[in-house]
Design a protein that fits this description.
mainly alpha, elongated, single chain
Length: 128
Amino acid sequence: EPAWSNDIAYIFPVLIYGLGVLILGLSVACPLEIVSPSNAFSTPLEILPEWYFLPCFNLLRVVTSKGMGVAGMVILVLIVISLCIIENASVYSNPFRRPIMMCVALTYSVFAIWLGVGSLVRIDEALP
């Protein structure tokens, strides 16, 4: 009679059980400690999105209601789309004769840069 069938039937379950008890005992006796306490309301600077998502990231981080932050982003995109439609309404329009639209576009750009720079600091310093 070959010996390996007895090993599989009788010895291996005991070894697997013993290994499980050893691993469980070590995990209960010496758990891995968390070095720094976590804060659910602050995002570490290592987990920042790419540079072109920084304004949206900061807007969602600063606004208290996440729904209002998403609505603000949608409204800003709709403003930019409507600017394109309104500006191109006439074929003969000159870009230097549209000071209102240029002011709105520059204000939006400055606001986006401001939000992008603000996302690189702590949340209490994100907006002045």
